[in-house]
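Forum > Structural Biology > Help requests

Title: Can anyone predict the 3D structure of Peptidase S1 domain-containing protein?

Hi all, first post here. I have the sequence for Peptidase S1 domain-containing protein but no way to get a structure on my laptop. I'd be grateful if someone could post the structure tokens.
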Amino acid sequence: MKPKSLLLLIFFVIITKVHAELIDCNFEVDDVQFYDGFEGEHKDVLSYGCKIQNIGVNDEGNDIKVNGDHMENQTDEDVTYFINEIEIVDYLASFTSDLCSKYPNLMMIHLRFFDIEKLEENSLENCQNLKILNFYGNNITEIPENVFFQNHELTEINIIHNELTTLPQNLFENQAELQWLNLRVNQINSLPSKIFKPLQKLHILNLGANKLQNINSAWFESLEDLKELFLDENQISQIHPDVFRPLQNLEGLDLSFNDFISQKYDQYKHVKSLKSLSLGANELRDLPKKIFLPLKNLEKLWLYGNQLSVVHSEWFGVHKNLVKLDLFYNKVTAVDERLIENSPIAEVDMEGNVCNNQTFEDRIEMRANLSLCFSNYKGQYPSSGTTRRPYQPVRTYATRGTTQRTISSIKTTRKLRITTATTQKSTTASSTLEEPIIINCGKTITGVQTVVGGTQTPRGAYPWNVALLHNKNTTQLKYKYFCGGTLISNKTVVTAAHCLKGKFGSHEFEASDIIVALGVHDLKKSFESGRTNIAVKYVYAHPDWNSNIASFEADIAVLELEHEIQFTNFIQPICLAHSGLNSVATGFVAGFGKSEAGHVENIARTVTVPIHDSKVCAESKDHESILGARSICGGSADGIGVCEGDSGSGLIIQKDGIHFIRGIVSASLYAPLYGCNVQAYSVFTDITKFRSWVMTQEDPHTQLLRIQAERDAYKNKLKELEEAKKIRARRSL
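Reply #1:
Sure, ran it for you. Structure tokens for Peptidase S1 domain-containing protein below:
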């Protein structure tokens, strides 16, 4: 059956099913999901009679959410007329204009986590009423110039997490109503100079997490109403002050995680309305005096993760609105105390700086002065009782059923939220204020080469491998291996959610039940040299993980360790993979899973895992029920693969000598003898689809160190390549 006709058949089946339930007004509560306007946030369903706002229907693997109106006693034709929103989370071979032909009042389309690589010119030609378009998490590499030509009513476009490198000049020619444009997490390295000229009503522009090095002043010429601009996580080293000249109403600017080493004294003279500015995680060593003087409305300033050594009051002058100053993890040795005289600053974070080198107990005893970098400071030092904030999903729109947007209600998921360090004092790890011992992520320092093919793993080959042990239903001192995991920072481990909360109530582990064995080579040797056992402080399973269904969608969890660990030859973190590494076709897994003899291995075995498109598993009827929308497929039919006990272990790839965790062992087909069928494909959680979520769960201090380690790994590799070129050049002479 052709993809086009298959798509229409799916819609026909589901709409018919919805209509039947509405006529009878007799549906089960479990069949209905209400959404409050943000992705993933559910409300309890009460008795609303027949006036239904949102109906979630699951049919044949497609999750289609239909937003309607009062549809009591309507005909089939009436039902299709009232439908104004469709959301599909599955696999779609093509996206055609027939969708809008069938539903003329369609206002919102969400096609997330498909394998769409290219939109056709006529894809949206019948969608004249479309207001919100969401292509989150696809593989779109290019967009036709005329694809939005008929969509005059569009107010929001979300093309986050795709593979775009640029956009056509006239793409937004007819989008005069557009208020929100999100192009985050692509591969964009350049844009046409007049690309945003028609978007005079644009309020939010997100170009974060791309590959931009230069910012064209012509991009912003018509964006006088722009309120928030995100340029974080690019490769920008300088921006001319006049680039911001048109943005006189800008209130939020994010330039964090770039390559700035300096700023001009008049850098922000044209953006006097700024209330929030982030320059975190750059390479700033000093800032010009009076740099922030024009920003009289500035309320929050983030300078974390730079190389600043002195904080000058001349940066600000007399500031009446600044309430938060974040200098977390710089190299500050002195602060001009005039900064806080007659100032409304209510929160200053100086954690991790040289001037704040006393122990936590010392700081507690000095509550009267609170921040030791300011001897007279009377404001609020970040609370020592910090608790992890709950998971907040990416919010793709503020309200349903309206085109109005309140800027203050839109909060994009930020990757770093700086607070004080943990209050747990470690007796075995170095102080959080000391410079960490780290060799960059994803590197081994034992000289052991990668070994694959179902063989035992030499000690130190993969220093990020950890073993998860539990003492539930055992004697208090006896711990039993149950899953693998991967160290990604000095305080964070990722594993599979089903390891902690098994399918259909088979088991459930709390943080207090678990210890993590790091530097482990032989599971039997509890006291082997180089091994460290550490308790778990918090457990965070992804909120989309559902242990009561067959699918292994969102099978990922984060463990926060009780305290920071000391890196050694046998304990090192790995780098998190990103979408730019999706072309790497082969990985490997080192795990303690069952061998051909049917028992758990005491020494981890390493197997090569060919990585396939998830469609390969999707085509197999056997995998249909377990495959998630954000999974990848791996393995081969040669009898070597992952098995029971490997769950939670990392699928590791290598690029330019750096190791990355690409996936997490999630599920495989059952076989009676060993518990797994190694001649069938296995399912892995795709870490690139959860990278942002993982980072929001990390302790802020360790998160920043890990991000810096990833950056350093790339920089050091570039240096190695340059040195190699020089050596080859000398040899050729």
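The chain has eight helices and 32 strands. The chain has a mean pLDDT of 69.
Shout if anything looks off.
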